[in-house]
Amino acid sequence: MATLMTNRATPLAQSSANAVDAIDAITALNSIDIDVTGRLLMLASSNLPIGSYTYSQGIEPAIESGLICDEASSLEFMSDYLALALCRYELPLLALMMAALMSDDNALADALGADYHASRESKEFVYESSQLALSLSAWLGDVLELDVPDRLLAHGFLPLFAHISSYWQLEPAQAMTTYAFGQIENMVLAAVKTVPLGQMAGQRIIWQLQQLLSERIPPLAASVQQSFLQVQKLSLAANSLEETSILKLNLLYQELHMSANLPNLAILSCQHERQYSRLFRS
Q1: Which of 109, 110, 119, 195 could bridge across to 100 with cysteines, CB 3.0–4.6 Å?
Q2: Per residue in 16-70, pLDDT tens?
């Protein structure tokens, strides 16, 4: 335990001590940055720890239906996915769940998790979310020796991702970028294998999509934080904690213009369930 002591060092000794302290501080800060970066890279990987590479997230049925046929159409489809599925719903929901968990508003976090689970509009998407959550839970248990209660698995992958991000005290923008990049990279890899595209074409798509992410996530994270703080200050008339959480959820969705309504993507997923020949689970 550190003890507060009076410093009686000479000016020269004081200067040397300050320099050493500064070096130690920088070294410690770099160690923290490296540790956080390593965790983010592991969570973003489509190969490890959860094997999300087995899912195409709608890319394979889009290729089958003719929506994707080359580099340009791949970029257009994925840009729409980034704007509509990620930035309009999943990323703000992730940030809201992290804010709720860090504020000990577990009832709101549960309501957000339940809404995410309900937003999976096809059997394949429900199965994908559930399986990824189970795989992430297994990784947390076997590698980090963290016990994941069964109730945290009930709502699928994104809510569990929010729990581990808040447990590691990641910044919301870091978690949002990691989650989104993992999905984008996975979709690009599916297109490279299935269209097929060249490796450089895939890299060009990833580069352009990550630039879009870097532009959109900081203001989106700031808007989520501002809206969350405003709603938390409101005095809401409700008969139960659950009802209060639903009121908060509705207010937040209205304030942030959030929506998971993507009927065409759901139709593609349903068609994929009966696709004659396929490489991916979704």
Answers
A1: 109
A2: 444 445 444 434 434 446 577 777 777 777 665 566 667 778 888 888 889 999 9
Write down all domains in the chain, each with its CATH number in brackets. Answer: 53-273 (1.10.4190.10)
Q: How far is residue 149's CA from residue 24's CA, in Å, rounded to a whole number? A: 38
Tokens of 213: 């992410």
Amino acid at residue number 53: Y
Tokens 């065409």, residue located: 264
DSSP three-state, residue 122: coil
DSSP SS3 for 277: coil
CA dist 17 and 14 (Å) reads: 5
Q: Report how far residue 242's alpha carbon sits from residue 168's, in angstroms, rounded to the nearest whole number.
A: 27
**How many alpha carbons fall within 13 Å on the CB side of residue 57?**
24
Alpha carbon distance 175, 44 (integer Å): 9
Report how far residue 116's alpha carbon sits from residue 130's, in angstroms, rounded to the nearest whole number.
12
